[in-house]
Amino acid sequence: MSGGNYKSVFDIIGPVMVGPSSSHTAGAVAIGQAAHKIFGEKLKKVTIDYYESFAKTHQGHGTDYAIIAGVLGMETDDLRVPRAVEIAQKQGIEVIFNEHEGTSPINHPNTAIITLENDTKKIKVSGCSIGGGTIEIRDLEVEGCHFTPLGPLPIMLCWTGGNDPVDIKAHLSHDNIQIRKESALSQAGGRYIHELDLDRMPHPKVLDQIKAVSSGLICL
Amino acid sequence: MLEQEIQYSRSSRTEVWNKMKRQLDVMKAAAKRGTTGDGVFSPTGLTGGEAAKMRKYRESGQGLTDETVLYAIENSLATNEVNAAMGLICATPTAGSSGTIPGVLFALEKKRALTEDQMIAFLFCASAFGMVTANNAMIAGATGGCQAEVGSASGMAAAAAVEICGGTPLQAAEGFAMALSNLLGLVCDPVAGLVEIPCVKRNVVGSVNALAAADMALAGLENKIPADEVILAMKRIGKRLPAQLRETGLGGLAATPTGTKMKMKIFGQELDLNI
Asked: Is B129 exposed, middle or buried (0-12, 13-18, 19+ CB in 10 A)?
């Protein structure tokens, strides 16, 4: 019973959520939350690009409000989820939905690509909802860097001054966390963004230790 | 399963147990909401109020089957009606199949006077079978059709029913295998792409099929094809299903003249989803 995307019993008996679809509603909230965590700033514009099943049925499944709820940082069981689009617009956020014909660029029928931006920052998160509210993130564009994670969460992004995050890896290894894939991309000013695909969520204490040796940390 | 979750989540036994209790409480509240008074209705008007009708029918004593089956039907309908009405539910394993397990669980609660701890244990057992299915095949209608949702849920419910009623682990696996085998090939063809028609009533077949499979397993019947192989058969079938029959709302019942008319009616005009 090892391996696979579904790791917790509460991925199977759960999530507790506002209906009507775990993949199109709860999963959409989760993809939105991933984008929310990465962006982390005041938002001006949200663009959602849908493919395949998401493109055909997003209206009926409440995918629109679900994904925006996630982008605003709400949880799947938040009763404000059905009003999220309205709430975002009231906050002055521009919200755009596009339906695309053809196949998903990340090869899954339930695909949504979220672009979040304000005057100074833009990120792009390509996620798919694989069922029961569980998601994968298969493509990320953050601060001009392009990553292609394996998909399953947890995915860790950290910012450091070097291209080999020795300290970070030592902390993870100490916590018995396996790194399934890693990549590092350089930015201006000698900074590096590291993307690490992990087999499970690090202990909160370990996350604190990693925060102490990096200039930024996001764990999806 | 409990041990695995304790290790994975780094939580205590009590924390994990209590979290499952919360899932159970959400299931109870949804079933109650759907069967109380005249029930709940979805914003589209396609579904709603039928769990309450079933409750009245059961109470009339005119039912063809016994109280346990009628109660399973009623609770299964109720949960999915609440889901369609954008109410709070617990996905088991998905929202579209959220009625199957509560239907069986609450029917057995009545029939066997289950304690709360037994009901929580039922959910842990169901989750073990669900996790194997999810990780080795699929549980999303968009990837595997309804067999992956209601089929998986029905297998999970059957296995847990066998266990809670004193069956052996092997009998639980047989119950799972029989329930899922019976629903192989079930397509996902929701009218207008909404989790309403036929989803609400398909959960009933998931529940009733689970009770039948559990009874067969407890009677000592075998599926002949082992559970693991049934899961892989489901995966292969799911991969061969055309996209029209995988939650796109383009085939099956969704493509009937009446299904198409419903879609036109709903999306031809402004749909108020802000409830």
From this structure: buried
If chain A, 220 residues long, is cut into consecutive pieces of 10 residues, what is the mean pLDDT of each piece? 77 92 92 96 96 87 93 94 95 96 93 96 95 94 94 94 87 93 89 93 92 92
Q: Which residue has the tokens 């002055």?
A: A92
Provide, as residue numbers in chain A, all residues whose Cβ is less than 8 Å from the Cβ of B47: none
Structure tokens given for A143: 């601060």
Distant-in-sequence, close-in-space partners of B79: CB < 8 Å, separation ≥ 6 = B27, B30, B31, B34, B89, B98, B99, B102, B103, B203
- Indicate the average pLDDT of chain B: 95
ipTM of this complex: 0.94
Domain membership of residue B57 (yes or no) is: yes
Q: Tell whether B230 is covered by a domain.
A: yes
Torsion sign, CA atoms B215, B220, B221, B227: positive
Dig out the tokens for B161 from the structure. 């029913």
Hey, which bits of A34-150 come out as E strands? 45-51, 94-99, 110-117, 122-131, 134-142, 145-147
- The strand pairing partners of A160, in sequence order, are A192
Q: Would an 8 Å CB–CB cutoff place A154 in contact with chain B?
A: no
Please classify residue A41 by burial: count the beta carbons closer than 10 Å to its beta carbon, then call 0-12 exposed, 13-18 middle and 19+ buried: exposed
Look at residue B273 in the predicted model and tell me its pLDDT: 46
Count of CB contacts below 8 A, A vs B? 195
Average of per-residue pLDDT across B10-17 = 94
CB B107 within 8 A of CB B75: yes
User: Cβ–Cβ of A53/B126 closer than 8 Å?
Assistant: no
Does the pLDDT of residue B3 top 50, yes or no?
yes
Residue B274: the pLDDT is 40
Say if B260 falls within a structural domain. yes
Q: How many domains does chain B have?
A: 1
A19/B89 touch (CB, cutoff 8 Å), yes or no: yes
B275 lies in a domain?
no
Cα of A170 to nearest chain B Cα, Å: 20
Across the range B204-218, mean pLDDT stands at 98
Q: All domains of chain A, ordered by start, with CATH?
A: 13-142 (3.30.1330.90), 150-220 (3.30.70.260)
CATH number at residue B166: 1.10.4100
Q: Touching check for B6 and chain A: CB below 8 Å? A: no
The CA-atom distances, in angstroms, between A2 and each of A5, A14, A67, B16, B128 are: 10, 20, 30, 19, 12
DSSP state letter for B48: B
Q: Measure CA B71 to chain center.
A: 14
How far is Cα A207 from Cα B116, in angstroms, rounded to an integer? Answer: 36
* B80-97 mean pLDDT: 95
State the residue range of the domain holding B55. Answer: 2-267
* Torsion angles phi and psi, residue B91, rounded to 5: -70, 125
Of the candidates A82, A86, A110, A114, the one whose C-alpha atom is nearest the C-alpha of residue A98 is: A114
